[in-house]
Amino acid sequence: MIVEFGEDELRDYLHGVLNPARALALEAALATDETLEARLLALEPLSEPLGRAFSSVPDHARLERLARELPVQPQLSRVLPLGLVAALAAVIGLFLGNLTQPDRKLSWQEQVAVYQALYVAETVAPLEPSPASLQDQFARASERLGLALTAADYQEVPGLTLKRAQLLGFEGAPLVQIAFATETGAPIAFCILKTGETSPAIVTELSGLPTVHWSADGFGYMVIGDLSESELIRTAHHFGAAL
Amino acid sequence: MTDEKKITQVNAALVTALPSVWRFALSLSGRADAADDLVQATALRALERVDQITEFSNLTPWFLTICRSIWLNELRAAKVRQSQSLAATPDIDLIANFLDIEENIFASEVFTEVMSLPEAQRAVVMLVLIEGHGYRAAADILDVPLGTVMSRLHAARSKLRRFAEAEDGRQAMQ
What we know:
The structure holds 2 protein chains of 2 kinds. Chain A is α+β, with helices and mostly antiparallel strands.
């Protein structure tokens, strides 16, 4: 039997004032009702202040050290050839550094960074797409990439306002740029390229912009823009979870 | 998928999940240094168990489950022995340096209050209210019944309620 709960009852529950019988019924219903769970979570008044207080925990220095100390090499040596161990260790070594090699072809991430570096606040500020327009942009991007993307997944990103999903290309492969503005108006982009590569996440700086990029399951991903490193990683994690 | 590719995937996921895993480790251990150890142990165990993974799309809950298991089964007793107790010892240095001084003070109060909760409540608060996992996902990660998650949250909310009220006031002023 489905038991219905109104929004006032859900708020009362979260404030601890719902009558005990209804509170018990609500908790019982949560075991099977995903919609009810989502509604209750959405009304949670503590998520915002608590999330904000912990948003920069752990701090940049600790995160950097933790990433460097991740136990990659000893474990890999058990199952991987030594050459590959060295290669992956080098990738981890570059975790927060700059990759600079003159006179070579730009990677797709570097090419995107060059493009993104031209963005200023005024580039994204005027973009105020209608829901229908966004839906259309995401539908076209999904079709070209062969990857399900929906605007709704990118409209609730903490601290970012969704501005546009546009189709670009890199060496004949579809490349999608999903553009956002931060609360201060700074342009941020989440880019997806169809690629056969697989690589771990690397946090770096490209064209002067903080960047994290990784690839998995046939797609390369990249978050770039003027965010602190912890915000950048948190945002990348958010996007990764939405995929 | 080859072991090599699985390890690469897990490495990538570990890097992006680091902040979440560390915060959860902090909520379990109550101490920053213990959280560091717990994160490293979690990463090591995850890499040892890549062959158990069948779905790579969201590994964070799996990392958190490993983290909880290592804490309860291996590290907790040792850390309690070291510090005699696991009473809350909020590490003020951990708190973010927000530009807005009022925001800084507010964040410090929230942080201290959350870290002062009993370990069991702290872990649930971290998973549901801060990391945004659902109630059932939190129950799975902590390996406790859903009812236990709800009762721990209920107890924690009553201690943290003033922050929700402060948030309401803040939004009303904006």
